[in-house]
Write a structure and sequence with these properties.
Blueprint: H1 41-55, H2 59-72, H3 77-89, H4 93-106, H5 111-124, H6 127-140, H7 145-157, H8 161-174, H9 179-191, H10 195-208, H11 213-225, H12 229-242, H13 247-259, H14 263-279, H15 283-300
Length: 339
């Protein structure tokens, strides 16, 4: 009786919350070189003081200087934008949005202000409005890679995978080193059934970040779906070489070898998975995989059949004189560890 196939651990995805980029731009820093921000000398002087304090991370004095500048000249868009940046860093979302909106009224081409409004709205949980703001930022500056990426993240979270794929692709075109965009593009492609494209994107993600264990696991899983077990085995082995403390890589490699009929090698990697799970304190997963180890060990080393004390004599009327006394030892199907 041949063993039933095991299943790989489910595909994994990066947490969006850790993938969002905060862009705090310095729209007026170039004016330190002598550009004219206002015809009012007091306003220009306070603005330059504000930029200097801001660049020194002295946000309190920078805010005071920018507000003094606006008292002398309320039409300095960059001063409004700087105030928005300061308030954004203090998580004062609504006040930051107000300053950015005032900056946009004065200068509708401030793409950074649109972007930072989007970020503030996203932090507040108003994702619909954030999407609109990111789109406005891209209208003002189509080359803003961070806006394109955060837009893709929000579309992906809403389940608009086709639109998210297009946005991720654009984000990777604008910033080819954005490994999060490349990885999330691969996952969105996988969700939509674009397996070949997803495999290519996972491979690109690994070119950018060879330590990305999630990409190794997902790439291996997709290769298995395509019947390319040999390639999947190499991918898992590469992943283990990069991160020998990732138990899911050992487990998935063990599953693949098991399904290929190489029970001995599978058991070796399952034992590694048990060791790492225990080291990480995950005794539940370690226990489940340990049961698999024991079951496979029993299949590899079945108990020997006791020899009879006296050889049985075939019945005279038995027409089947076959001497085939082989024993078939069934292999129990180990349970797959829970997520």
């Amino acid at each position: 009786m041949s063993p039933k196939p095991l299943q790989l651990q489910p595909l994994l995805k990066l947490c969006f919350a850790s993938s969002i980029f905060l862009l705090l731009t310095l729209p007026g820093s170039k004016l330190l070189a002598g550009g004219l921000v206002s015809h009012n000398l007091e306003a220009a002087s306070f603005f330059q003081i504000g930029v200097t304090r801001y660049n020194r991370h002295d946000l309190k004095d920078a805010e005071a200087a920018f507000r003094h500048a606006l008292e002398f000249d309320p039409n300095i868009a960059d001063a409004r934008s700087y105030l928005g940046n300061i308030l954004l860093q203090q998580n004062r979302w609504d006040l930051a949005i107000q300053e950015y909106e005032e900056a946009i009224k004065l200068n509708p081409k401030l793409s950074d202000a649109y972007y930072n409004i989007g970020f503030a709205l996203q932090q507040k949980g108003d994702k619909e409005a954030a999407i609109t703001a990111y789109r406005q930022a891209l209208v003002a500056n189509p080359q803003m890679a961070t806006a394109q990426y955060n837009l893709a993240v929000l579309l992906d979270e809403r389940g608009q995978h086709q639109e998210a794929i297009a946005a991720y692709q654009k984000a990777t075109e604008l910033d080819s080193n954005n490994v999060n965009a490349t990885f999330n593009l691969a996952f969105a492609q996988q969700q939509e059934g674009f397996i070949d494209a997803a495999i290519a994107s996972y491979q690109q993600a690994l070119n950018l970040d060879p330590s990305n264990t999630l990409a190794y696991n997902n790439l291996g899983s997709l290769l298995i779906l395509q019947g390319k077990a040999d390639q999947a085995i190499k991918v898992y082995q590469q992943g283990i070489h990069q991160n020998p403390q990732n138990p899911s890589l050992y487990y998935n490699l063990g599953v693949t070898l098991y399904n290929q009929g190489d029970l001995k090698s599978a058991n070796k990697y399952f034992k590694h998975a048990v060791r790492v799970y225990r080291k990480q304190g995950d005794t539940e997963q370690a226990g489940k995989v340990q049961q698999m180890v024991q079951q496979i060990s029993t299949a590899l080393n079945p108990p020997k059949k006791a020899k009879p004390s006296q050889k049985a004599t075939p019945s005279a009327n038995n027409s089947d004189n076959s001497t085939n006394n082989s024993v078939v030892v069934p292999v129990s199907t180990p349970e797959m560890p829970s997520k």
